[in-house]
């Protein structure tokens, strides 16, 4: 049984790698579908702004509250801005936003492609002499790779502002001091490192979603199973790869 | 003598343990429409899908204008698919696009026509299929028969040399069947060829020059509709009575 599972694991990994190679080849050869890319950025990226803001603000507020009361006992309230901003920008905003996108966008893409597959629309694309990779995969992967880092940064900065509100109202930390501490503790490496991580997570989410969408069988039941598989597996791979990417980024910056 | 534009030589195809095709050979000539008949599960649709590379054959050869087209890579196949088009049984319309966008899709993909020219061409085809007022409708707003007609229109918009019709009349009322058959005849009159997969023997006799009967993974009968009617073969007689 375990050998069968291992074989399936390697088969899936191989197929996703093959999809990645096809995606890369399609990115560097004509035709390009810029209008489809913009359409997906609006749909996947701009459509996720509000929920990213909510996650960022609430996380920033909770973090400030918890660290504020925790550090108050040791007289360390003044360290709250630095701790909150660094943890938000380096880890929490990228991870929370990516997990959110895995749920919202990953499941959406896999369900859409899966439904197209079971209704023969993917076959129709191929029969009309068009590559489904170019038309469906490339715009979605690129749109998410562009949108997710920006959404994570938006989430991070909105979290800092949420933290500022709590720092001022609960701990009487002046906004000027708070922002000064935030900007002096954050580096460009934190921002770009997080954006790099998010672009990688976006690649994972969308490749998983597209791969599983193309594999969907068994009608609507299959579409449901596909979305579950994508959200669960993309989330696990994001969490595992986050450790290794964080380690790499700490070494680099 | 008519020119042979498509030739299938000893096609074999297996799914897991089931031999679907055990050596199918036939030719399609220019301007000819061939009916491919057989019971459900005989492998008719698989054969059509194999011709345009949606399924890979295990052995044999598929020649289009004397060029071998089986086992081509996807880029090469995409060029062939602009000359041999496929009309899906369900229509397989893109549900995020309206009727106009569905039909215009191949033109935007493969031609350099202006938007005005595309609009004109799509309008002509919509007139031909009797759906000139359906341009803005979404596939979900269409009946099954209308969806099949739009699917047919999309398949013929690039003026392909061959259209593969996968059960275009299945599940339709007599009026819609008549409309579809008229569209197919119209296409035939313009000199194009077709392979018509169906269970509907009267419909096949109406538009086809030749009928092929698939049995046990092989071509059991290859002849004109007249020969089909006159055949004394027991299987043909039973098939004819049951469909």
Give a topology summary.
The complex is a heterodimer of chains A (253) and B (243).
Chain A: H1 2-27, H2 34-45, H3 49-72, H4 80-118, H5 121-127, H6 132-171, H7 175-185, H8 188-215, H9 219-252
Helix pairs in contact in A: 1-6, 2-6, 3-4, 3-6, 4-6, 4-7, 4-8, 4-9, 6-7, 6-8, 8-9
Chain B: E1 4-15, E2 18-29, E3 33-37, H1 44-51, E4 59-64, E5 67-68, H2 74-80, E6 84-87, H3 99-110, H4 115-128, H5 144-156, E7 162-166, H6 174-189, E8 193-198, H7 201-207, E9 210-215, E10 218-223, H8 225-230, H9 234-242
Parallel strand pairs in B: 3-8, 3-9, 6-7, 7-8
Antiparallel strand pairs in B: 1-2, 1-4, 4-5, 9-10
Helix pairs in contact in B: 3-4, 3-5, 5-6
Sum this structure up briefly:
The complex is a heterodimer of chains A (about 250) and B (about 240). Chain A is an all-alpha fold and about 250 residues long.
């Amino acid at each position: 049984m375990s050998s069968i599972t291992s074989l399936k694991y390697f088969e899936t990994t191989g197929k996703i790698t093959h999809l990645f190679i096809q995606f890369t080849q399609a990115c560097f050869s004509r035709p390009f579908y810029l209008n489809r890319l913009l359409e997906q950025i609006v749909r996947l990226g701009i459509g996720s702004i509000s929920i990213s803001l909510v996650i960022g603000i609430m996380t920033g507020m909770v973090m400030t509250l918890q660290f504020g009361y925790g550090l108050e006992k040791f007289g360390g309230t003044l360290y709250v801005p630095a701790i909150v901003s660094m943890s938000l920008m380096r880890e929490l905003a990228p991870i929370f936003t990516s997990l959110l996108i895995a749920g919202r966008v990953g499941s959406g893409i896999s369900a859409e492609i899966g439904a197209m597959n079971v209704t023969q629309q993917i076959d129709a694309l191929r029969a009309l002499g068009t590559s489904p990779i170019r038309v469906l995969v490339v715009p979605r992967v690129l749109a998410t790779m562009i949108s997710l880092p920006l959404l994570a940064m938006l989430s991070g900065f909105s979290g800092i502002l949420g933290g500022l509100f709590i720092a001022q109202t609960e701990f009487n930390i002046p906004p000027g001091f708070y922002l000064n501490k935030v900007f002096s503790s954050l580096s460009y490496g934190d921002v770009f490192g997080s954006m790099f991580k998010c672009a990688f997570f976006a690649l994972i989410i969308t490749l998983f979603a597209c791969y599983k969408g193309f594999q969907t069988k068994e009608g609507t039941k299959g579409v449901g199973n596909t979305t579950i598989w994508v959200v669960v597996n993309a989330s696990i791979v994001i969490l595992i790869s986050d450790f290794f990417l964080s380690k790499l980024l700490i070494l680099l910056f | 003598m008519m020119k042979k534009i498509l030739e299938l030589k000893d096609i074999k195809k297996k799914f897991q343990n089931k031999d679907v095709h055990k050596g199918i050979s036939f030719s399609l000539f220019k301007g000819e429409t061939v009916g491919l008949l057989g019971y459900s599960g005989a492998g008719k649709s698989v054969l059509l899908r194999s011709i345009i590379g949606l399924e890979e054959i295990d052995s044999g050869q598929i020649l289009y204008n004397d060029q071998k087209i089986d086992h081509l890579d996807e880029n090469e196949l995409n060029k062939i698919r602009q000359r041999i088009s496929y009309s899906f049984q369900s229509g397989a319309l893109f549900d995020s696009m309206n009727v106009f966008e569905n039909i215009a899709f191949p033109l935007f993909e493969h031609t350099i026509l202006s938007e005005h020219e595309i609009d004109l061409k799509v309008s002509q085809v919509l007139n031909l299929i009797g759906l000139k007022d359906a341009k803005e409708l979404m596939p979900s707003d269409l009946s099954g028969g209308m969806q099949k007609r739009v699917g047919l229109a999309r398949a013929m918009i690039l003026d392909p040399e061959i259209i593969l019709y996968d059960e275009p009349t299945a599940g339709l009322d007599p009026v819609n069947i008549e409309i579809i058959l008229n569209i197919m005849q119209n296409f035939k009159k313009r000199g194009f060829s077709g392979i018509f997969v169906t269970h509907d023997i009267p419909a096949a006799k109406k538009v086809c020059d030749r009928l092929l009967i698939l049995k046990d993974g092989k071509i059991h009968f290859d002849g004109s509709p007249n020969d089909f009617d006159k055949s004394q073969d027991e299987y043909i007689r039973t098939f004819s009575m049951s469909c």
